[in-house]
């Protein structure tokens, strides 16, 4: 297997994190994985890389067909005359065909990914027994012990931590575990308002990748410093607002319910607002937010914030119209 570049590793980590999304397959079952039409977002992973790290576990029963400047989910069915699939275009109502790979559902091979993380940490094979048996199915694995200085420390990998905090923290509080450990998350940092149990540290894997090398490796010194509580500046860690771009989930300290945002335009707006909030800019003009969503487009653009969130009532609990033309988070 080819060595991973830094960009390949980052995309692989992102793919692993996002593979918890649910997809309805062609026989009505719900599977977790990445549909083929989303693979383009992992630019450093070509089809050969995807085959090295993922299995095709089924086919989606729908496809997001182009509809104006957006997309509309349409049913798909096999083409009897080829190995492709057909769908009815929501604009022209004509039948169009797509390759099976476009609706294939890919799921990363968990043990392969976890062993790769253990390799990067130089964890001996004899200490990796927890990889084959998840502590929380699909979410939390103990991948072994890593030597930081003179101490052997338990290392875990967590996927979808933002949505499974209660279950993960409950496991860490159980008495069969040591008081000290590292939770390497494939997502982002947790908001500063969340207190991690005992003496565990939650550290995003992407934060300890050595960016000075061409081939992916872990910066063990940085990992040691983060484990011992070294203070690295992170604008988002002290903010009452936290946006996880992997899961498109917004967390606000005063709101007990995280908001998982579905639409890409809505997510782009909230991501931009969160980035500005980290910089201390809590009030933004509608024009500025919409520019972040629309970019340089001139057709099919969003012109009003309420229209952007049309059909989704959840947003009323998270952002507000502070005054005419000015919007911000409800904190």
Automatic annotation (TrEMBL):
It comes from the Bacteria. This is Uncharacterized protein.
